[in-house]
Amino acid sequence: xxxxxxxxxxxxxxxxxxxxxxxxxxxxxxxxxxxxxxxxxxxxxxxxxxxxxxxxxxxxxxxxxxxxxxxxxxxxxxxxxxxxxxxxxxxxxxxxxxxxxxxxxxxxxxxxxxxxxxxxxxxxxxxxxxxxxxxxxxxxxxxxxxxxxxxxxxxxxxxxxxxxxxxxxxxxxxxxxxxxxxxxxxxxxxxxxxxxxxxxxxxxxxxxxxxxxx
Length: 214
Known about the structure:
Elements: H1 6-14, E1 32-43, E2 46-54, E3 65-66, E4 69-71, H2 79-91, E5 98-103, E6 107-109, E7 114-123, E8 137-144, H3 145-149, E9 154-158, E10 164-170, E11 173-175, H4 177-189, E12 201-203
């Protein structure tokens, strides 16, 4: 069992005060409720976060790295329960070893019409993880925070539409879109961010275009 680190406590304390960009603010009366689990832990290479690579055969964001998560079902009782359930279904993570610290403000994804609540948690007792739902998940990775904040792994990614945002190249994954935006903001709020060259712009690779729906 490991103790919650100070940086994660600070992030949880600030979670509901994080600013939400106008384009991510949920509209009144629209959107399907969803939740994702931002599960931080102490791994073999220091603090890390659990990410999945979605299946290219899947219906939701095919081929895109993401936090485990999905829709909030009526029987879930709320976003926390939904995030834990989805993480267990997708990665096998045992929810009994997860300590939930709080939630971030609800964010709206226009393309999928989802109102997503990121749930911040500490992996108090890590369990083995794998692609537990092959139809939805290709692989599961515990990505070290040190690799995410390394300036060499960070850049601005520009989509064919001209829209650009933060991105990470870690563990053979191109992390972009919603997941990259949330990571960018939460790493900064936790005081872990390092200065990086935001003017370094990379075009979306052709092989990733099938995962353009964010």
